[in-house]
Specification:
heterodimer, A: 573 residues, 4-stranded antiparallel sheet, B: 17 helices
């Protein structure tokens, strides 16, 4: 019995395809994105070696250069490095930790910052996740699920690096003082499970959670919900609620970095031409442009558009858009005419929405311009998985409408928060009018190659949450826009000022509601954990399953409603 | 203008077009059966309704909305339903007028597909019934074929073949139990589409299999009618026969397959659909007792259609990670 996801879509199976693997670690040019407060350490014209630190944030989180070359451009958002072809490496780290037991929490976070280990799916630096959950969690969830139907690299990566993964898990458990790791994987992936089991002989403190093969179960909120039957409120992330979900690739990176003493400079990802050409697994240097990556993979002619993110929720980007540390899928698309769809209220989007929203309402309110209503019905709870648009028989651009609405509401929030006087800068707007297609995200520029989609999306204040990942998109909900958005404030008319006042009122109400939620939901959580361990054992035995858990675990940690469905680690003794 | 591709770069093959084709496919056996029982004139009536509905719809969208989408064949379904809901003896202008009212007044003026509040086909039928009730209530013997191309059938031709339907006699509390199987297979008099409950059940199963309509909704509808008929069986017969009569005669099955599952005019939520089905089932049993013998079902459907946004409003699911039924706060 696999753990189920309510809603979601079962996509056609492409799992049998086994794309070839290639390494592309020497691109002509890389551009490194300055996220998470990274500040450049280099200047224009500097020569850098591979693995050399080029940026650092105030908390000492480091970005390393993936190639040796010359810095050609330094800005607030980018560092561009041109390859000089010499392939010089900066020297290895001398002090390597010897044994797993030596690494405590402080050492680990120090090393994670130094090596720039970032969540391979969320894009959040790992040290931040660990800091938020340190001392407050009973388990670590390792996500081995290929979240997107086209992503094919995760499974292969784990199979090839099962040793690294398991040692990484052990380091994490030891450093965090946590007894149990829950490895979430696809329900029919027996091979992967057996491979990982080898490294946890006896009572290794590892439980396998076998998940239904359904999109988007890889999203951390839904994963936690499927395993533990807890709904984490949208105002906090899963790791803040005591369920740190860490993707397998991140753990592998963690171990490899500690082993080699080198920072993370590459990202394994899947490239996919939408007519099934060029489906490859690539290990690419961070910062490689998508177009260059595809030319390396042998993309046939006729593909003029690129996208990254996911096959259901990606965003079309410029060919120069760099690979990031959380890029999992890059797509090449053929240009084609797309006409607007029409909603026939078939209610299929309601059925597949994993967040139990009514996506067609967002489209309706988008057409009628009722933004406040959109916020009320949970616009910011949307994780932008794209399942609604996938099933839509009317071919409505629901996902696009949701993103536009989010971007516009973010602008209004900024105005409200009083950073600047309302009327002063409104005329100097990047956008003109309130029309559907006059949106910075969907400007023609991002197709014709003139614009920079990244800048545009940051300016409207949704940050990279628009690009990829569950964590990010969920995060972007509550996030205040980045600095420098003042130019992008739209020339709204007086109606909007009224709307804004409305929002202020509504927000107060929502805050109160949210606090209630938290209490209620935590109540339910406690209720669920009332089942005692012997009871669970008994049920499992009745079902013919043998429970073989570490004896030293506290009983509380084992008692969740869905625990019967976790496939316990079979002891080999 | 170049347009960017939208985010789902792969899509489910099901589209509006395939859904509409599935529904049309269910209508085809009904039309053929109607042709077998009532002759070519019945086929002509249905085809006239469909063709005129399509013409009115395409003309209106092209002239008013300035759009032209050949793949939007929903008007064919509206027209087909109007044709199937008419008796064979109506003049040939009736299906055309019904389609005109349905498409223009009930659909296009509300903003086109997906935005209408009232079921267009039901509006067309009710309007015809309200305006020309006399011609709508003429039901004739099965297997008496009228000339297909005569605009208005001469009174002499119709008079000798008029027949009392099961619903008519039910108004007097009389049930002919021996004819119930005829009702099921489609050999008793009625409108063109409602003849064969058997074919409608097959079509229903096909649509459920294709996931165009939901089994739950129809089940709730049927159960409501069955339970209410059992307890309020006012006719002079066994309750089981009364239940069979309620289910197999008149447009009950037509409602179960088509009208109840219209996307735009019924609630979008699953529980809302079930609630709507229960209300409709109850209303149909009631209107057969209190209201006219024929076409009362369409009137109660129109009365219930405006309730669907309100039902929706209170049946939207709880948003993940919140305790608020935020949907309920959305103003209508």
């Amino acid at each position: 019995m696999a753990l189920k996801l309510q809603g979601g879509v079962k996509l056609p199976e492409f799992r049998n395809s086994n794309p070839p693997f290639m390494i592309f670690d020497n691109p002509l040019e890389v551009s490194l994105v300055m996220e998470h407060g990274l500040l450049p350490l280099v200047e224009n014209g500097d020569r850098v070696k591979r693995y050399e630190q080029v940026a650092r944030n105030p908390e000492d989180f480091v970005m390393a250069s993936p190639i040796s070359g010359v810095v050609t451009e330094v800005s607030e958002n980018f560092i561009v490095i041109k390859n000089d072809g010499e392939g010089l490496d900066s020297p290895e780290d001398e002090e390597k930790p010897k044994a797993i037991d030596e690494i405590d929490y402080q050492t680990l976070t120090g090393l994670l910052k130094k090596y720039g280990v970032t969540g391979a799916f969320s894009g959040i630096p790992l040290y931040k996740k660990l800091a938020a959950s340190y001392g407050g969690c009973e388990r670590i969830i390792i996500n081995c699920i290929e979240s997107d139907p086209m992503v094919r690299h995760v499974r292969g990566l784990i199979l090839e690096n099962s040793k690294e993964l398991s040692f990484g898990i052990k380091i994490l458990l030891n450093a965090m003082g946590v007894k149990k790791a829950v490895i979430a994987l696809d329900k029919d992936d027996i091979q992967l499970r057996d491979e990982l089991k080898k490294f946890f002989p006896g009572r290794g403190g590892v439980v396998f959670a076998q998940m239904e093969v359904k999109y988007p179960i890889g999203y951390d909120r839904l994963l936690v919900n499927a395993i533990y039957n807890t709904e984490i409120t949208s105002d906090k992330e899963v790791w803040q609620a005591g369920y740190p979900v860490i993707s397998a690739e991140t753990v592998i990176n963690l171990f490899v970095c500690l082993q080699t003493g080198r920072p993370v400079i590459s990202k394994t990802l899947t490239s996919f031409g939408v007519d099934f050409s060029c489906h490859t697994r690539v290990r690419a240097a961070v910062g490689t442009g998508i177009a260059e990556l595809f030319s390396h993979c042998g993309l046939p002619d006729g593909f003029s558009l690129f996208a990254m993110g996911g096959v259901l929720n990606g965003i079309t980007v410029d060919g120069k858009e760099p690979v990031r540390k959380n890029t999992n899928l890059v797509l090449a698309l053929r240009e084609k005419e797309v006409s607007g769809g029409v909603c026939i209220k078939c209610s299929r989007c309601l059925g597949v929405c994993p967040m139990h929203l009514a996506p067609f309402k967002f489209h309706e309110n988008h057409l009628s311009g009722r933004r406040v209503a959109n916020k009320l019905i949970g616009l910011f709870n949307c994780i932008e998985c794209g399942a609604c648009a996938y099933v839509c028989p009317g071919r409505v651009d629901i996902l696009g409408d949701i993103r536009k609405e989010k971007a516009k509401l973010n602008i209004q929030n900024t105005v409200m928060s009083g950073k600047q006087a309302m009327p002063a800068k409104l005329s100097n707007s990047g956008m003109t009018g309130t029309g559907v297609f006059n949106d910075p995200l969907y400007s023609e520029d991002d197709i014709s190659g003139g614009g920079d989609i990244l800048l545009a999306s940051e300016d409207v204040g949704s940050d990279d949450g628009l690009l990829d990942g569950a964590d990010e998109s969920a995060l972007s909900g509550g996030k205040k826009p980045a600095d420098g958005e003042d130019k992008q404030i739209q020339a709204e008319d007086i109606e909007d000022i009224e709307e804004i006042e409305e929002i202020e009122d509504i927000e107060d109400i929502e805050e109160i509601d949210n606090t209630e939620d938290k209490e209620n939901i935590s109540d339910t959580k406690n209720e669920q954990s009332d089942v005692s361990l012997p009871t669970v054992k008994k049920t499992l035995k009745q079902k013919g399953l043998v429970l073989d858990e570490p004896a030293d675990l506290p009983a509380k940690a084992e008692t969740k409603t869905n625990e019967q469905e976790l496939i316990p680690q079979d002891g080999e003794d | 203008m170049k347009k960017s591709l939208w985010a789902p770069f792969i899509r489910l093959p099901d589209s509006m077009f395939t859904i509409m084709l599935d529904v049309l496919a269910v209508m085809v056996p009904l039309i053929i059966w109607g042709g077998y029982v009532y002759g070519p004139r019945s086929v002509l009536i249905v085809l006239l309704a469909m063709a005129s509905a399509a013409v009115f719809d395409f003309a209106f969208t092209a002239l008013v909305f300035r759009e032209f989408n050949l793949k939007d064949i929903s008007s064919l379904i509206t027209g087909g339903l109007i044709g199937l809901s008419l008796p064979v003896a109506v003049p040939l202008w009736a299906p055309v007028l019904g389609s005109l009212i349905a498409i223009v007044a009930a659909k296009s003026l509300f903003g086109g597909i997906g935005r209408n509040i009232f079921n267009p086909a039901a509006v067309g039928i009710v309007a015809l019934y309200a305006l020309f009730g006399r011609i709508m209530n003429v039901f004739t013997k099965p297997f008496v074929y009228f000339p297909a191309l005569t605009m208005t059938l001469p009174q002499s031709l119709v008079k000798g073949n008029r027949v009392v339907t099961a619903l008519d006699s039910l108004k007097g509390g009389v049930v002919n139990t021996s004819a119930i199987m005829d009702d099921f297979y489609g050999l008793s008099p009625g409108t063109i589409g409602e003849l064969s409950a058997f074919l409608l059940i097959i079509g229903f199963l096909y649509l459920v299999f294709r996931r165009v309509i939901r089994f739950n909704t129809a089940f709730a509808f049927a159960m409501t009618i069955i339970v209410l008929s059992y307890f309020f069986s006012y006719a002079d017969c066994e309750p089981i026969d009364f239940i069979k009569l309620q289910m197999f005669t008149g447009p009950t099955m037509l409602f179960m397959v088509f009208f109840l599952n219209d996307y735009a005019t019924t609630p979008v939520t699953g529980s809302g659909k079930v609630l709507f089905a229960v209300l409709l089932g109850g209303a149909i049993v009631a209107v057969r007792y209190f209201g006219p013998a024929h076409y009362g079902e369409y009137i109660v459907l129109l009365a219930l259609n405006p309730l669907s946004p309100i039902i929706e409003k209170f049946t939207f699911p709880r948003v993940f990670g919140t305790k608020i039924l935020t949907q309920a706060r959305d103003s209508l």
